[in-house]
């Protein structure tokens, strides 16, 4: 009997041990990871800054440490800087050449790498950066985005890499690009997208934007209500989209033509914007299906009920009038 109890106890202990180890292993994330650029002889410690020449190879190194209790597999992905709706510089999006006037993409100048780190392990990783064969002007704001391969949608880490040939500042220029719909934390948004199409960063840009929808319901003041947004962007990346976000307040996105008008100001420089863009049914359906807790828009249904009641009242009145007229006609003929 004792042997059976000991055997069952051993099985239970092993099961708990395996389950505990598996539980611990899933807890690893970039929250427990530290990334440090290895920079020699420079006062800059938070990013790489390279005075580059065409068609040259430059090497940069990152020191990555896992302070977590479980192992972690990371992806270190090169990309260009982009601008968030909050007015900050991010590196989460994959940026390709041609976007917003970008001549060269940083992801084409070096390669992404995977790295696996055991608990309390540090590794040094080197990247070779090959500059374009032709000269470029302004600032190329590239960087490495580091994220957990098992949790790709979770927030990651960034290490900027700034490249310039002449180290001369270039001013940014804002133009109206388009209107799009997207999902943010399972909530629908409509973005009026501006574009900084120059290789120069911008700071402290204030944007005022108005958005309205063109349609029959809007003419009757029953559809999409015109909305305004005032947003200050502390930093805008070179050659990047500048999204101005309109929260749908849990209402579904409606397809149709949207008109955006607005202004932007940076110091003494002013811009004015005006344009009409279409959100297709496919785009609206994609956003609405990915959103949660949407409030159904029953405006059309209520309008149809009112029209049906009006038609019913009309036919009832017309029937009574017709019946009364027939009775008067019969009385005259008698």
From TrEMBL:
Signal sequence coordinates: 1-25
Keywords, sorted A to Z: Membrane, Signal, Transmembrane, Transmembrane helix
Keyword check for Membrane: yes
UniProt keyword annotation of Membrane present: yes
Domain (WxL Interacting Protein host binding): residue spans on this chain: 158-289
Coiled coil: none
Name of this chain's protein: DUF916 and DUF3324 domain-containing protein
Species for this entry: Bombilactobacillus thymidiniphilus
């Amino acid at each position: 009997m004792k042997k059976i109890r000991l055997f069952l106890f051993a099985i239970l202990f092993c099961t708990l041990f395996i389950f505990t180890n598996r539980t611990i292993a899933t807890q690893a994330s970039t929250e427990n990871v530290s990334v440090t650029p290895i920079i020699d002889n420079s006062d800059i410690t938070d990013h790489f800054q390279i005075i580059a020449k065409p068609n040259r190879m430059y090497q940069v190194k990152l020191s990555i440490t896992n302070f977590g209790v479980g192992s972690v597999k990371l992806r270190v992905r090169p990309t260009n800087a982009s601008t968030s709706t909050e007015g900050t510089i991010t590196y989460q999006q994959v940026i390709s050449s041609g976007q917003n006037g970008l001549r060269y993409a940083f992801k084409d100048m070096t390669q992404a790498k995977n790295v696996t780190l055991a608990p309390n392990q540090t590794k040094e990783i080197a990247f070779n950066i090959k500059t374009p064969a032709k000269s470029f002007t302004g600032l190329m704001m590239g960087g490495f985005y580091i994220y957990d391969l098992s949790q790709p949608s979770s927030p990651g880490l960034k290490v900027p890499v700034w490249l310039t040939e002449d180290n001369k500042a270039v001013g940014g220029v804002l133009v109206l690009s388009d209107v799009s719909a997207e999902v943010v934390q399972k909530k629908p948004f409509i973005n009026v997208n501006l574009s900084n199409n120059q290789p120069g960063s911008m700071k402290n840009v204030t944007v005022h934007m108005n958005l309205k929808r063109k349609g029959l319901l809007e003419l009757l003041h029953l559809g999409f209500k015109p909305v305004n947004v005032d947003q200050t962007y502390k930093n805008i990346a070179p050659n990047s989209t500048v999204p101005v976000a309109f929260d749908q307040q849990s209402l579904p996105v409606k397809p149709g033509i949207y008109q955006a008008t607005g202004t932007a100001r940076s110091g003494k420089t002013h811009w004015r914007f005006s344009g009409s863009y279409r959100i297709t049914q496919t785009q609206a359906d994609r956003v609405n299906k990915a959103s949660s807790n949407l409030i159904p828009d029953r405006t059309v249904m209520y309008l149809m009920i009112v029209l049906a009641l009006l038609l019913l009242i009309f036919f009832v009145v017309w029937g009574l009038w017709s019946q009364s007229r027939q009775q008067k006609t019969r009385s005259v003929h008698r």
